Amino acid sequence: MNLRFIGEFAWSYGIKSIPRGPSYVVASMMYPLVFLFLIVIFSSGKFLAFGVVGGFIAIVAENSLFSSSDAAFQRIELKFQDLLVTTRISHLDYILAMGLSFLAPSLPGIAVYAVIGAIIHIFTLASAALFAAILVLVLLSTLSIAFMIASFAKHTRNIWGISSIMVVLLTMVPPTFYPYTILPKAVLYLFMLSPVTLAAIASQGAFGLTPQLSYAIPLLVAETIIYFAIAMKLTKWREN
Amino acid sequence: MIEIKNVKKKYDDGTIALKGINLKIRSKVATVIGRNGAGKTTLMRILSTQLMPSSGTALIKGYDVVKEPNEIREIAVSIPQEAGPLGFLTPMEHLMMYLAARRVPVTEARIDAAKALREIELWDARNTPADMLSGGMKRKIFVAMALASNAEVVFLDEPTTGLDPLSRLEVWSAIKLLDSEMLITTHYMEEAQELSKEVVVVEGGRCVGHGSVGSLLKKFDGLVRAETSRPGVKTRYRVGSTSIEYIKARDAADYIRNGYTIKQITLDDLFVMKGVELES
User: Cys-Cys link to A6, which of A97, A122, B119, B222 (CB 3.0-4.6 A)?
Assistant: First the structure.
C-alpha cells in the first residue's frame, strides 16, 4: 500500500480543494440539514436526535457515493486512472485515496452535526467512539459500492444520474433519519442490504434512541467486507 | 528498447484493434503514426501496461508487458491520450501526487518537481489551479510529470492533439527537454518529423511501414503530389473528394495546366498511399 500517495491525493484533491470549491461542501451539507429541519418541524422536535444521527451517516455516505462520479470522470474523460495504472500504485491505493479525499468535504458537515449533537446531549464517550467506528464502516462500504458503479460506467453523464439515485436509495429511503422500529420486518430486512441501514440501526441503538439489534454491527462489518471484496474484484484497473 | 512480436488485441465487443504487430524499435525517440482508429493508442496502452494484449509478446528494455508490468512501471512513464489535469489542482500538486505514486521520496520529489516546472516554464504557474491554465500549459503539466520522474522510457500518446499551433510548439519544446527513450504516437506527420528519426506507420491494426523518415519517403524520390478536387477525375489515389496522383517533378507543369495543385512530398503522402492501398 502506498500511504504517501493516499495522503498526498487526499490532501490535494480533498482538503486543499475545499477553499477552491466551497459550494460542493455546502451542497453536500444541505440535504441532511434540510431533512433535519423537516424532521424537527413535522415531529415537533421529537425526532431531532434521529435527524442528527442520520445526518452524520448520510453526509459520509452521500460524499462516498458521489465519489463514483469523480472516479468515472477521471477514468473516462481525464484518463487520469490510466496515468496512475502505469505507476506502482494499486486500485486499493486509488480507492482509499479517493475515499479519504471525499471524506474531506464531509468534515465541515460532521462538525456542524457534532455541535448540534453536543448541544442536545446525545453523545457519551463510549457511544461517540462506537459511532466513529460505524462511520468508518459506512465510508468503506459506500465507497466500495461507488467504485463498483464507477467501474461499469461508460458515460459520465450516466454516472451523475446513477450516483444521485444511489444517494436517495441508500441514504434517504432507509431508516437513516427515522426509527427503524416503525418499518415492517420484511421491509427492514430488505433495507438491510444497504450498509447505511445497518449503520443507522446500530447508531440509533448506541445512542439509546431505539432498542439495540445485537446483529447490526457484526452484519455491518460483514457487509463492508463483502462489498469491499466485490469492489476490489470488479474495479477495472489494468484492463483486459 | 522495444520489441514487439505478433501482438494482437481483440476487445470484448469483438473489435480487432491490432492484427499482429511485429516491431523492433532501437532509436532513442520513435514515433508511431496512423489515422484515428489505426491501433496506435491500443498499442501504446499495451506497451505501457495499461491494457493486456490478447496474444503475442512485447518487451520494454527486456521486461515482458504481461509477466513483468511492475518492472516496466518502475522505469517507464506513460502519458495517456487526451489526459486532462484535475481542475482544482495546481501543477505543483499534480507533480507531487504523481511522484508520490511513483514512490519518489518527498524531499527528492520537491526538488525534481521544482526543477521540472522551471525547465518546462511552468514555474510561474506552479500554484495556479489547472482549470485556469491554457490548453498548452495543461498538457505541459503531463510532460513535466515525465520530466520530473527521470524515467528511462516515456510513452506519449498524441501529446499535442487538439492544441493550437503555438501551444503545439510549446509542447514540442517541452518534449525535447526529455532525455528519456521515447515512443510517441501522433497523427500529425510534421510532429513525427520534428520529434523523431524512426517512424512506425500503423494502419488497420498492422504495421505497414517502419524506418527513418528518409527511408520511408525513398519511394517518392523525384516525385511530387498532384491533387485536384475536380469531380470525375480518375486517379490512383483518392481521399474524400480529393484525387491524388504522384508524378515526376518534371511533369508538374502539364498537371498545373490541367487544374492540378502541386505539393512537395511529406510523410502525409506515405499515409495517403498506405491508407488507400489497404482500403482497396
Answer: A97
